[in-house]
Design goal:
The protein has five helices and seven strands, in the order αβββββααββαα. By secondary structure, it is α+β, with helices and mostly antiparallel strands. Belongs to the LEA type 2 family.
């Protein structure tokens, strides 16, 4: 019996050592953008780059996310079965997270201080590795979303301003030409 136990322990140690030293997928959050602001929520989209070192595709079982702001959790969710990681490649995964306005209303103090929403996005990318089983890659990203001011809303973007300026110059030029014709 003692010899069998020693053999089991030896095999267990060797397998554990191999698994511990085995290459594992790695992930980084490349960017987080606000994609849509609607009457009921703000939709954030995180771009996650995941590198698969294996010669076979790996299924992503689930992506769990938590959005925090001012130290409070304002949204949580999961994305079941979002696809697979390409073999021996880097896969870009889009992770949408929807934050209801009711949660943002509780952040009035943060917004009033500097007119932006500071946030932290925490992701858990759960993949199914052969031999090991489910493996979670934890990720975190912090950023801020600047809210538009009333003057920004009235003013529009720079392109609109340029178009308005060009149109005004053309009108002035036409008026000037008409005045010159009337004088002659």
């Amino acid at each position: 019996m003692d010899l069998v136990d020693k053999a089991k322990n030896y095999v267990s140690e060797k397998v554990a050592e191999k698994v511990a030293n085995m290459e594992k997928p790695e992930a980084t959050i490349k960017d987080v953008d606000v994609k849509k602001i609607s009457f009921d929520s703000i939709s954030y989209h995180a771009k996650v780059s995941v590198t698969n070192p294996y010669k076979v595709p790996i299924p992503i079982m689930e992506i769990a996310y938590v959005v925090k702001s001012a130290g409070r959790i304002i949204a949580t969710g999961t994305i079941p079965d979002p696809g697979s990681l390409k073999a021996k490649s880097t896969t870009l995964v889009d992770v949408p997270a929807k934050v209801p306005h009711s949660a943002i209303v509780s952040l009035v103090m943060d917004i009033a201080a500097d007119w932006d929403i500071d946030y932290t996005l925490e992701l858990g990318l759960i993949i199914d590795l052969p031999v090991i089983g489910n493996f979670t890659i934890p990720l975190s990203y912090s950023g801020e979303y600047k809210l538009p001011t009333l003057s920004d809303l009235w003013r529009g973007d720079d392109e609109e301003e340029k178009d308005e300026k060009d149109e005004k110059e053309k009108k002035e030029e036409k008026v000037k030409k008409l005045e010159e014709k009337e004088i002659k």
